[in-house]
């Protein structure tokens, strides 16, 4: 029955998109079905928003249809089957689709670059979440005394959870090279250049290099550079010799530049980012927390929030924890509070249903269904949710709450919070819920605003 419902939803979406022949390319992330149409003018965006099960629609380089976590995977599978059955999807059009995206008139080079960076880290999110949760839960169990820290079970769980973070540079390098048009394997080697323990034997300019110096910033530099070099060298190498000459020249040149430039430069940038943020929070305190918390949700709307992932990881790599993530997590919490306020005030059945569908994901730290399906379409509730997020962020900053890993926000993030700060994080979460609720209930919503949910 569930499978049939997913098929029906996919059919309704495809109908409003102009049919299978109008689909050039499609993919999905954690919550969105992303579609590149052949002719955007035939898409009925307003009717698409009204399809039962569609939580929101974002029109950017690709058309992004918000379906929610879990649901998006199943609907995309049904969507794919419909496209294939109709013969409307052509793999040869992918390159043209990418070019069309880049040529969008409002896509600035800076915005496109940030989205490329986001594209490097988005595929890693499931692994980061799983590793972070296993690490956090293991530490909590050991701290509670339910498991001996030197036991074999604790060791096994720690190895399972921490393995990703030791070799993350390789995965980042792989994705970065692919995102910038290079060979993934060469990108992986670029990551190895940074994290290889043998780097400790290199002595340059009177200084011994430190393995991992430059962190993920250095890995990004090296992987992007090796991709660009590979493409340039390939232009001048005969096809018969390409397999031998191109990767060899690219790796040799990247290796030299990495140890002379990228590792020191990456380390400097990493220091500026981490010391700058920690100083901002130390000096700005609750004011900085309020501003950071309140301004995070607009980043989510643009999708640029994923570009913050390397900053989170650099904080953990450099200072051992991340004081930024708990502050930004208050954005999703305030959305939940705002959604509850609307739910209690509205008499619109369709709006109540949309909120009920998005609340479980919101509580578990995935706020996009509530943002794009509820608060953003209504307008004012989005702003009151931002204010609520600022209040929660101010609390987290005041008490210096931090996480030991990167993961989804909401209640699950409590498993990743530094030992001894879990209760503080949860109190801040409740404050953000309450602030989002109060601001929205009192100032953010009237039922006449919900006309499109009739």
Outline:
The protein is mainly α.
Description:
Helices cover 66% and strands 5% of the residues. The chain is mostly helical and 454 residues long. It is built from 18 helices and six strands. Residues 88-106 have low confidence and may be disordered. α14 runs antiparallel to α17 (380-398). β5 (203-204) and β6 form a beta hairpin. The radius of gyration is 24 Å and the shape is globular.
Mean pLDDT: 85
Low-confidence parts: 88-106
What's the overall geometry?
globular
Order of helices and strands: HEEHEEHHHHHHHEEHHHHHHHHH
How would you write the strand order of the largest sheet? 1-2-4-3
- Main β-sheet description: 4 strands, antiparallel
**Count of alpha/pi helices:** 18
- N-C termini distance: 27 Å
Q: What is the CA-based Rg, rounded?
A: 24 Å
Structural class: mainly alpha
**Domain tally:** 3
Measured by DSSP, the beta-strand proportion falls in 5-15%
- Report the strand count: 6
Helical amount: 55-70%
Write the layout of secondary structure elements.
Elements: H1 2-16, E1 23-28, E2 32-37, H2 45-50, E3 56-59, E4 63-66, H3 71-86, H4 94-102, H5 109-121, H6 125-143, H7 152-166, H8 168-179, H9 184-195, E5 203-204, E6 207-208, H10 215-234, H11 242-294, H12 296-302, H13 309-319, H14 324-345, H15 349-363, H16 368-378, H17 380-398, H18 422-444
Antiparallel strand pairs: 1-2, 2-4, 3-4, 5-6
